[in-house]
Specification:
Elements (H helix, E strand, L loop, with lengths): L19 H19 L1 E4 L3 E7 L3 E2 L7 E4 L5 E7 L3 E6 L8 E4 L1 E4 L5 E12 L4 H7 L4 H18 L4 H7 L1 H18 L2 E12 L2 H54 L2 H9 L24
Parallel strand pairs: 6-7
Antiparallel strand pairs: 1-4, 2-3, 2-5, 6-9, 8-9, 9-10
Helix pairs in contact: 3-5
Length: 292
């Protein structure tokens, strides 16, 4: 009779039999743990907690940072970031720390089209975060921030000429954009911190025309400066000539009133080797022609 090879026996592990009471106890412990876990809300720094109650809807009071309790499975918690957020429109793909979009085009008052790179700094109002969540939802950046920012930047730029929005009145345009967007954001419980016009670009043809215009204006300014300098030099010469003429006139009057001044002037111009003196008019002057 053929014999089969003998294989070693596997080690025998002790078998645990769960009785009914033990199984129920484990299930109860798991349920209690899940209830406790679901009843805790941890709000991290820079956030607020929003509670949705299945019976009452979104609760008005936001939860501040820290650990809070809620009704397990009956209330649902949501977190909203209320720190500074950035929405960037740029020609460079992917530029922007949090939210980014393509550079936008905007028409100007003089019929040109410019490309605008801008950054919008904002944050949800932490005291009205529940209202924002209830009325708009968690995608408020796409629904409010992007839509309002792009439309209002276009609307304000359309009031300025291309050269004004590029340089001359850029600060004024940026200030008006901030004012309009701040007001519209506030209506939706979003706080605008600042809108920054980072870059404004023209078409190559218009940029070349602006450069030529600036060169021409610089030449005109230089010619005007040279003209003003020539007029100033002319006025200076006239004033100097008038002063010389007045001095001559005054000197002539002085000589006419005092003939002795003529003798004094004559003596002043004589050689320093001649000894001289001024005598009364009725005495002839004596000159020492022999020198010292």
């Amino acid at each position: 009779m053929a014999q089969f090879p003998q294989f070693p026996r596997l080690p025998q592990f002790p078998q645990f039999k769960l009785r009914g009471k033990n199984l129920i106890g484990i299930i109860i412990a798991i349920i209690v743990f899940m209830i406790i876990l679901d009843g805790l809300v941890s709000v991290p720094p820079g956030h607020v907690g929003i509670i949705y109650d299945r019976g009452r809807g979104v609760l008005e009071k936001e939860l501040p940072e820290g650990l809070h309790l809620k009704i397990p499975f009956w209330q649902v918690s949501y977190l909203m970031d209320v720190r500074t957020q950035e929405y960037t429109m740029s020609m460079a793909p992917g530029e922007g720390a949090i939210y980014s979009d393509d550079s936008m085009t905007a028409p100007t008052a003089d019929g040109q089209t410019v490309k605008v790179d801008a950054t919008v700094l904002f944050h949800p109002d932490r005291t009205k975060a529940a209202e924002l969540f209830q009325s708009v939802g968690p995608d408020y950046v796409q629904k409010i921030v992007r839509t309002v920012s792009r439309s209002q930047i276009r609307a304000v730029i359309a009031k300025y000429s291309a050269i004004d929005v590029y340089a001359v009145k850029r600060d004024e345009a940026e200030q008006k954009i901030n004012e309009v967007i701040r007001e519209l954001f506030a209506e939706k419980d979003i706080v605008l911190e600042r809108v920054l016009l980072r870059h404004i670009a023209f078409s190559p043809e218009y940029a070349s025309a602006i450069e030529e215009k600036q060169v021409a204006e610089q030449k005109i300014q230089k010619a005007e400066f040279q003209r003003l300098e020539a007029e100033k030099l002319k006025e200076k010469k006239i004033i100097e000539a008038q002063a010389d003429a007045e001095a001559i006139r005054l000197k002539g009057e002085s000589l006419r009133r005092s003939p002795e001044v003529i003798q004094f002037e004559f003596v002043q111009k004589m050689s320093p080797d001649i000894n001289w003196g001024v005598l009364p008019s009725d005495i002839l002057p004596l000159l020492n022609l022999g020198g010292r």
